[in-house]
From TrEMBL:
UniProt lineage: Eukaryota, Metazoa, Ecdysozoa, Arthropoda, Hexapoda
Entry's family note: Belongs to the G-protein coupled receptor 1 family.
Its membrane topology: Multi-pass membrane protein
Location relative to the cell: Cell membrane
Species this chain originates from: Clastoptera arizonana (Arizona spittle bug)
CDD domains hit by this protein: 7tmA_Glyco_hormone_R (cd15136)
Protein name, UniProt field: G-protein coupled receptors family 1 profile domain-containing protein
A Pfam entry, by short name: 7tm_1
Superkingdom in the source lineage: Eukaryota
Length: 762
């Protein structure tokens, strides 16, 4: 009986460990299973808060993949993995919040190790120097979400063979010092750290295919020699950083550049510095314009390149080379169009066939020509290749597939040179809101805007000077016209800001686009134009209502007084300031276009904001139309057909017409854009901006003040105070002092008020 119980207990305890039918083995807090891919691998996982050290006897020492998670391990010692050193390939340690120390030789004597991952260890702040140096077979190294503040030394990492991935994402790295990174890897990821600056030659001697520094928002400074000495770099990601300058030394072979959400970078490097660039993902569309128009972006480098082409022609003519190949026509150096996200216009360099003369090879900025044993060198874009036994004199070399530098190829055939350049696939592509053009776009528009500015500035300044200098009692119409002139003067200043900036940046606006659109200038200009337009509309409406009330209720004693008008204008100023302030706080925006108008409709709030402005403008227009219609039809038939009232009707029509010409086109095209069917792009909208948008600002001072008899009287009196036009001032004084008849019929009173309205307000 006792023997039977012992036998049963033995079977219960040991049978699971050796059963051929089960592929999972349990040892303490660890469990193992077979992983069958190309070969059978033993994968073991250990976890639990009670796990303070890694067991030395997991699966009888046969472990290929080992993962540790949510353990209470504080230190990983040198001999931790020795029991598995003959088989261990993959180590993953995650969610070990108490881990503080990793000893120096822990990964030594692991001849099969290929992947090491340490993640979610916030108290792990440093690694011993050369911790991974002995791991000669290592392919993948991931250190993420730890407290690591400095890059560990990588003296021999990747020395025997190039690693696949080195990932130090989401740690607390502060800086990269000179020679702090020494390794060979296809990918080095340093994303989402706290890196603030990178010193010169930080990657000197490295061979890195892709380098990513994405998400280092505190990264502001890159030394001019940051990438000096780096080899084989093809892909660079500096997205979501705060750099203000991108150094180009070491980026000659760069093919992919990512600078998404890098709002602080003002000017992109010249395409002549990024000779191999094929794909660019940037923040601003005007940076893509720089790639499209290299001659405007960097005139000095472009001139140097053109000089190189001229020298190349002269050298070929001098040598008078003869070849049996077809002659090719030399064309201007063109970069072609910018290619967007669609690939239908993108031709891979490997799909093209290129011819190159044996004695020339395009590389950097030198050209060298082989003539026997002698060599001629001069500044340019080519240098000779090393000679090979297969090269035959006067024979061309055919390259099927990509050459050393597929983006820029120099062909020297029969004394003719041609340079080809692949179009760069660049995003964001310049669009309708931000085309590759100057602020004004057209030359004739650049001239016209100065005529409009002069008219508005002179007219509104003249109105303000005269009305504010007069000594007569301030009336409500005079008070309102002062505010109307102030609003229209602000509109003229907005156009002046645009015109001056256009004058400074003509021909290469995209070099100034960042400072203008993202700087204070565009914010001030945008605020000023919205404030001016809304205040002008409000004041015009109030002025029209005041005139309507004065004529329709001519005998009513409680007319609008100056105090009430001032209170209403306070409301008008508050509305105008509030309307102009919304884009400063992210509702629409002034930086979306070069003309600084709130044309961004990317979200619901922005659409609602634009619709509110349009609704207020539409309401004001119909109110003005209704008031002037009632003013006109309030006169009887005989009065409407007298010469004075026909003049009044013409002036009313002119006032309504100018308002319609100013507001209707803007409202129509704005509504179609908000509805998702834009009928006009920014280039053509600039015509509206110059000739329609400021119509009221130009016309109002003349229609409401300068062309009226009252203004002429005030102007002559102002001149007379300084000893000018005294005779005319005396004549005006005598006319206005003539006694008026006390007995005036109601139709006559209406007629007098109408004439006064035509001269003062209408």
């Amino acid at each position: 009986m006792v023997h039977t119980l012992v036998l049963l207990l033995y079977v219960m305890l040991w049978t699971p460990c050796y059963s051929a039918d089960l592929d999972e083995i349990t040892t303490g807090a660890c469990s193992c299973s077979n992983s069958t891919q190309e070969e059978v691998l033993e994968a073991c996982h250990c976890s639990g808060a009670t796990l303070s050290l890694i067991p030395p006897d997991i699966n009888d020492g046969v472990v290929h993949v080992l993962s540790i998670s949510q353990a209470n391990i504080e230190e990983i010692k040198d001999d931790t993995f020795l029991p598995y050193n003959l088989t261990l390939r993959d180590i993953t340690i995650t969610y070990v919040k108490n881990l503080r120390t990793v000893q120096k030789n822990v990964f030594r004597k692991l001849p099969e190790i290929q992947s090491i991952t340490i993640s979610q260890a916030p108290n792990l702040t440093r690694f011993p120097d050369h911790l991974f140096s002995a791991a000669n077979t290592l392919k993948v190294l991931r250190i993420s979400h730890t407290g690591l503040q400095n890059m560990p030394a990588f003296s021999q990492l990747g020395a025997n063979r190039i690693m696949h991935l080195v990932d130090f994402e989401s740690n607390q790295l502060k800086e990269l010092t000179t020679n702090s990174v020494r390794l060979r890897t296809e990918q080095l990821l340093l994303d989402y750290n706290d890196i603030r600056f990178i010193e010169a030659s930080a990657f000197d001697g490295c061979q890195i295919g892709k380098l990513s520094l994405r998400g280092n928002k505190m990264l502001t400074t890159l030394s001019p020699d940051t990438f000096k000495g780096i080899q084989t770099l093809r892909d660079l990601d500096l997205s979501q950083t705060s750099i203000t300058h991108l150094p180009t030394i070491g980026l000659e072979e760069l093919e992919v550049l990512r600078l998404v959400d890098t709002y602080t970078l003002k000017i992109i490097p010249s395409i002549y510095d990024l000779k191999s660039l094929q794909l660019a993902r940037l923040t601003y569309s005007f940076h893509c314009c720089a790639f499209k128009y290299p001659a405007l972006h960097d005139p000095a480098r472009h001139a140097k390149h053109q000089a190189f082409l001229t020298q190349a022609h002269e050298l070929c003519d001098e040598k008078n080379l003869n070849t049996k190949s077809k002659r090719q026509t030399m064309g201007n150096f063109e970069f072609g169009a910018i290619v967007g996200s669609s690939n239908e216009n993108v031709v891979s360099s490997s799909e093209k066939q290129h011819f190159a003369f044996p004695n020339y090879l395009l590389t950097s900025d030198k050209i060298q020509f082989r003539d026997g044993d002698s060599m001629i060198k001069w500044s340019g874009d080519v240098q000779p290749p090393s000679p090979t036994d297969s090269e035959q004199e006067d024979e061309e070399v055919f390259h099927q597939g990509p050459a050393m530098m597929p983006q820029a190829k120099l062909q020297a055939l029969c004394g003719n040179l041609s340079v080809e350049r692949e179009p760069i696939n660049c995003e964001p592509v310049p669009d309708a809101l931000n085309p590759c053009e100057d602020i004004m776009g057209y030359e004739w528009l650049r001239i016209s805007v100065w005529l409009v500015i002069s008219t508005a500035l002179i007219g509104n300044t003249a109105v303000l000077v005269v009305l504010l200098s007069t000594r007569s009692e301030t009336s409500v119409p005079r008070f309102l016209m002062c505010h109307l002139a102030f609003a229209d003067l602000c509109m003229a200043i907005y156009l002046l800001l645009l015109a001056v900036t256009d004058l400074r940046s003509t021909g290469y606006y995209f070099n100034y686009a960042f400072d203008w659109q993202r700087g204070l200038g565009c914010q001030v200009a945008g605020f000023m134009t919205v404030f001016a337009s809304q205040l002008s509309i409000f004041t015009l409406s109030l002025l029209t209502v005041e005139r309507w009330f004065a004529i329709r209720h001519a005998l009513y004693t409680n007319k609008m007084n100056l105090q009430l008008a001032a209170k209403i204008m306070v409301v008008g100023y508050a509305y105008a300031i509030l309307s102009a302030a919304f884009p400063l706080f992210g509702i629409s925006g002034y930086s979306s276009t070069s003309i600084c108008l709130p044309m961004d409709t990317g979200d619901t709030a922005s659409v609602a904001y634009i619709l509110l402005l349009l609704a207020f403008t539409g309401f004001a227009f119909f109110l003005i139309c209704a008031c002037y219609a009632q003013i006109y039809f309030s006169l009887n038939y005989e009065t409407r057909h007298c010469p004075g009232e026909r003049t009044l009707a013409r002036k009313m029509t002119l006032l309504v017409g100018t308002n319609f010409a100013c507001w209707a086109p803007i409202a129509f095209f704005s509504l179609t854009a908000v509805a998702g069917y834009p009928l006009i792009d920014v280039t053509r909208s600039k015509i509206l901006l110059v000739f329609f948008y400021p119509i009221n600002s130009c016309a109002n001072p003349y229609l409401y003040a300068i062309l009226t008899a009252q203004y002429r009287k005030d102007f002559i009196n102002l001149l007379a105070r300084y000893g000018l036009c005294t005779k005319c001032a005396q004549e005006y004084k005598m006319v206005y002092q003539q006694p008026k008849s006390a007995q005036t019929s109601l139709p006559r009173l209406l007629h007098t008020d109408s004439v006064r309205t035509a001269e003062v307000a209408v």
